[in-house]
């Protein structure tokens, strides 16, 4: 059975984000094919996709390598997020379905419950699902895919400090959902802009300068997902 390239792409991207492959390290097709138990064909396709996304670069005499983004490139990602997250919320207020609202409200309830219990690990996952669902509710595939890629790259370049008061964060999520449910695009945009700006202050760059090139590869914790792409 031929494993689709998008599954291989997801696995490699997840490992880059998790730091399994160091910035600047080589990504040889043969090594990747063995690591993920696939042929070199889907690996080659996956590397082309990851290069287009900015996770991989092709260097003369070295081939595919993990990209080494600059501090300015990393800062640009946060600025793009500040612009696009509010846009997505505004679009969601006009285009969301009842199914989207049901999921968003359920996530807010769970988030508020976990915040009261102090379950920080659960809160991070729930926050990610919340913003993914909000983006999907925008009804724009281009905007959703751009925001998803931004989240992947920001997670790769930044560590995020847990909020001092997670209940406040989930109150903001609740306010976003209320505006979306009412179809109030301007309110959804404004509340999301404030929420995104506040959360930006918790991001800490994982690197400085150009970074050191290393060919060390840690043990992968992410096997290829056979069920399809993850959004």
Q: Could you describe the 3D structure shown?
A:
The chain is elongated. The protein has helices at 5-18, 29-36, 40-53, 71-95, 98-117, 120-136, 141-157, 166-182, 185-200, and strands at residues 56-59, 63-66, 158-160, 203-205. It has a two-stranded antiparallel ribbon. α4 (71-95) crosses α6. β1 (56-59) and β2 (63-66) form a beta hairpin. The two termini are 23 Å apart. The protein is mostly helical. Keywords: DNA-binding, Transcription, Transcription regulation. This is GntR family transcriptional regulator. Pfam families: FCD, GntR. It comes from Streptomyces galbus.
Concise description?
Helix content is 64%, strand content 6%. It has 231 residues and is mainly α.
Question: How would you describe this structure in keywords?
Answer:
two-stranded antiparallel ribbon; Tscrpt_reg_HTH_GntR; disordered C terminus; single chain; 4 strands; two-stranded antiparallel sheet; mainly alpha; 231 residues
Mean pLDDT: 89
The helix-strand sequence is HHHEEHHHHEHHE
Strand order of the largest sheet: 1-2
Structural class by sheet pairing and helices:
mainly alpha
In which range does the helix fraction lie?
Answer: 55-70%
Figure out the total of helices: 9
> What integer value in Å does the Rg equal?
19 Å
Please state roughly what percent of the residues sit in beta strands, choosing from under 5%, 5-15%, 15-25%, 25-35%, 35-45% or over 45%.
Answer: 5-15%
**Poorly predicted tracts of residues:** 210-231
Separation of the first and last Cα atoms: 23 Å
Overall, the morphology is: elongated
For the sheet with most strands, the description reads: 2 strands, antiparallel
Number of strands: 4
Pfam family, one: FCD
Keywords: DNA-binding, Transcription, Transcription regulation
Organism: Streptomyces galbus
Protein name: GntR family transcriptional regulator
